[in-house]
Amino acid sequence: MSVIELRTTAEIEQMRPAGRFVASVLEATSKAAAVGVNLLELDALAHEMIREAGAESCYIDYHPSFGASPFGKVICTSVNDAVLHGLPHDYRLRDGDLLSLDFAAAVDGWVADSAISVVVGTPRDEDLRLIDTTRRALDAGIAAATPGNRIGDISRAIAEVAKAEGYSINTDFGGHGVGRTMHGDPHVPNNGRPGRGLPLKPGLVVAIEPWFLQTTDRIFTDPDGWTLRSIDGSRGAHSEHTIAITEGDPIVLTQRG
Ligand code: MG
Asked: Cα of 113 to ligand 1 centre, how many Å?
C-alpha cells in the first residue's frame, strides 16, 4: 500500500539540520576527492563526520531485497562506469576519474539524501557535459515541483533535459519520498508523462535524483553485490537533492553553500 506523508511547516523546519549535515558531508568528501585518495578514506571521512554530529547513517545497515548483504559503509562512491550504489573499496582515485558521491543520514530522526558528481584531476569535456546535464535536469525537476503539478511533470522536466543532450533514461532507479526513513512513496522516475501521477501538495518531501550514462541506459550489478555499472563501460553521473514542496518555491533542504 502506498502511503504518502505530508509534513507540516514545523516538521520541514525540523528536517533542515539533516539537510545541512548531508550537504556538509558531500562538500567535505567531494573536496577531499583528489588523485591518489582512496575511496575508503572518503568513507572514513564521512563516518567521522557522522560521529562528530551525532547523526545516524542510513546506509551502514541498509539491506534491501536487491542487496547481497548489509551495505557496511556510510557513503556511496561510484567511479566512472559505476553510477549508483558504489560500494567503497580499496581503490585510489586516478587523474580524470568521474566520481559520484551519494550520501544519506538522519539527524534528530529526520533523513536527508543527496548526491553529487565531480571529476578528479583533469576533466574530459564529455564528462563535464554529462555532469552538467544531471545538474540541469535536477534544477528542472525541482522547478517543476510545485502545487498544481504532478509527479509526471517532475519526471518529464528531467527527461527533457537529458533527451536534449542525447542521453537515454533508465527508470528502474529514481527519486523517492524522504522522511523518517530514506525511501518512501512516491517513486519519482526520471522520465514520465506530464499531468500524470500523484498531485504535488505542500508538505511533500522527496529526493529528486537524475542519473544518466553516456551511451546506454542499461546497467548491471557488480560482483560486489551493490555497485551498479553501465553495460557498455560508458561513464555515469548523478545529481540529487532532497526538497520540500511548499505553496511557493520548493525548499532545497540539501543545498550546498
Ligand atoms: Mg541518494
From this structure: 5
